[in-house]
Specification:
The complex is a heterodimer. By secondary structure, chain A is mainly beta. Chain A has a single domain, classed as Immunoglobulins (Immunoglobulin-like), CATH 2.60.40. In chain A, strands 2, 4, 5, 6, 9, 10 and 11 form a 7-stranded mixed sheet that branches. Chain A starts with a strand and ends with a strand. Chain B has one domain: Immunoglobulin-like (Sandwich). Helices cover 0% and strands 53% of the residues of chain B. Chain B is globular, with a radius of gyration of 14 Å. The model of chain B has no long low-confidence stretch (mean pLDDT 90). Classes of the chains: A mainly beta, B mainly beta.
Chain lengths: 118, 116
């Protein structure tokens, strides 16, 4: 099916373990994003990518690593999970429309991954 | 830095009535977009409506409309004929270009409950 998908939808892990959250989109959108959502903080940007092999830090990048070898995939890795990384993680994508004002148009969100770090 | 403020943590409305959710933002930019996203209990983020800052006309999508006041930096969402399925968290969001770094900034959300 077309759209943006995330896997797994739920994940329980232990402190210190490495965890990778997957994000896949079928629109060939240039931009992809990772957000985390926590009570009292709303959504906060972790990392984003403007194109394959181009990534940049967001508001809360510490403890996370991303890569984008293919346009359609944008995995997020927690190298050594901590309890403070328990959260709901959202992936999003957006097309870039040059020459029409701001680069970013509407962002389309995946269904989210709920991560619990014990 | 841009900020988005939603001053109503929770609101409730009776089915079929109208409700307005408030949002204010702070920016020195002139060109930007504003969005309202809905997050139902399923937790997925769903775009409700968007507004381009250069457009004076308020955006409308079926029962959803906005009141965009650029000078006041206000962007409220009006939901007409509220339905039970409108029960959700609603997030106001802002995006602009600033120094080549373009980020979507979210408010902390308003929890809307539609009562039968």
């Amino acid at each position: 099916d077309a759209g943006i998908t995330q896997s797994p939808r739920y994940k329980i892990t232990e402190t210190g373990r490495q965890v990778t959250l997957m994000c896949h989109q079928t629109w060939s959108h240039s931009y992809m994003f990772w957000y985390r959502q926590d009570l009292g903080h709303g959504l906060r940007l972790i990392y984003y990518s403007a194109a394959a092999d181009i990534t940049d830090k967001g508001e809360v990048p510490d403890g996370y690593v991303v890569s984008r070898s293919k346009t359609e995939n944008f995995p997020l890795t927690l190298e050594s999970a901590t309890r403070s990384q328990t959260s709901v993680y959202f992936c999003a994508s957006s097309e870039s429309i040059l020459g029409t004002g701001p680069f970013w148009e509407t962002q389309y969100f995946g269904p989210g991954t709920r991560l619990l770090v014990l | 830095a841009q900020t988005v403020t939603q001053s109503q943590p929770e609101m409730s409305v009776q089915e079929a009535e109208t409700v307005t959710l408030s949002c204010t933002y702070d920016t020195s930019e002139n060109n930007y977009y504003l969005f309202w996203y809905k997050q139902p209990p399923s937790r997925q983020m769903i775009l409700v409506i968007r507004q381009e800052a250069y457009k004076q006309q308020n955006a409308t999508e079926n029962r959803f409309s906005v009141n965009f006041q650029k000078a006041a930096k206000s962007f409220s969402l009006k939901i007409s004929d509220s339905q039970l399925g409108d029960t959700a968290m609603y997030f106001c969001a802002f995006i602009s270009t600033q120094g080549g770094s373009e980020k979507l900034v979210f408010g902390k959300g308003t929890k809307l409950t539609v009562n039968p």
